[in-house]
Amino acid sequence: EYMLLSRHQNARQNHDITVENGCFENVAQFRYLGTTMTNQNLIQEEINGRLNSGNACYHSVQNLLSFRLLSKNIKIRIYKTIILPVVLYGCETWSLTLREEHRVFENRSFPSIIRTIKSRRMRWAAHVARMGEKINAYRILMGKPEGKRPLGRQRHRWVNNIKRDLRDIGWDDMDWIDLPQDRDQWRLL
């Protein structure tokens, strides 16, 4: 299988590629390392898949969570060690708009799940910021695509989430690349 990412509508037509005796099918989405990727680069499919997987995990341990002899603390530990990691796998790289945060996670989980996502995203941002310009992850996140942007609203980027998270906690005057260089100050943040 292969997937083509393009802004042009005609580029998304289904054209299979044949090489020697093998045929590669053009697909609109596929799973790679447990993550759903789409040719529209929409995170919504991934989030819905994660929530469905979390619901499946919840239903598999529902008997334990409804067992009266287990304390509330043990049930919370079960939730945090079994269900939450399934739901939040890869959340560090999610680029969420405020609308997506409210629409997707409302009434489905603890109110602190958004705070957990932001915390993990900030931890990843600090890690990437300390990598330096020669590492591919840094260059990809900081890179500016060449060419003209298509008409319409600008796409929400991952860096926008980092800047918004810093603004929410009152650190919007600081550069998110310079701030994590001091690990102690970053951890306090």
What does this 3D model show about the protein?
This is Reverse transcriptase domain-containing protein. The chain has helices at 44-60, 62-65, 72-87, 98-105, 113-131, 136-142, 158-168, 183-188; strands at residues 17-19, 22-24, 29-32, 35-38. The chain is globular. It is mainly alpha-helical. A two-stranded antiparallel sheet has the order 1-2. A two-stranded antiparallel sheet has the order 3-4. Among the domains are: 1-40, no CATH class; 112-143 and 156-188, no CATH class. Helix 1 packs antiparallel against helix 3. The chain is built from 8 helices and 4 strands; from the N terminus they run ββββαααααααα.
Major beta sheet, strand line-up: 1-2
Estimated share of beta-strand residues: 5-15%
- Number of helical elements: 8
C-alpha Rg, in Å? 20 Å
- So what's the overall shape? globular
- How far the N terminus sits from the C terminus, by CA atoms, comes to 43 Å
Structural class: mainly alpha
- Unreliable residue runs: none
Topology as a string of helices (H) and strands (E): EEEEHHHHHHHH
Largest sheet: 2 strands, antiparallel
> Portion of residues in helices?
40-55%
Could you tell me the mean pLDDT?
Answer: 82
What is the strand tally? 4
In short:
47% of the residues lie in helices and 7% in strands.
Keywords:
two-stranded antiparallel sheet, mainly alpha, 189 residues, two-stranded antiparallel ribbon, 8 helices, globular, Reverse transcriptase domain-containing protein
Explain the layout of strands and helices.
Elements: E1 17-19, E2 22-24, E3 29-32, E4 35-38, H1 44-60, H2 62-65, H3 72-87, H4 98-105, H5 113-131, H6 136-142, H7 158-168, H8 183-188
Antiparallel strand pairs: 1-2, 3-4
Helix pairs in contact: 1-3
Protein name: Reverse transcriptase domain-containing protein
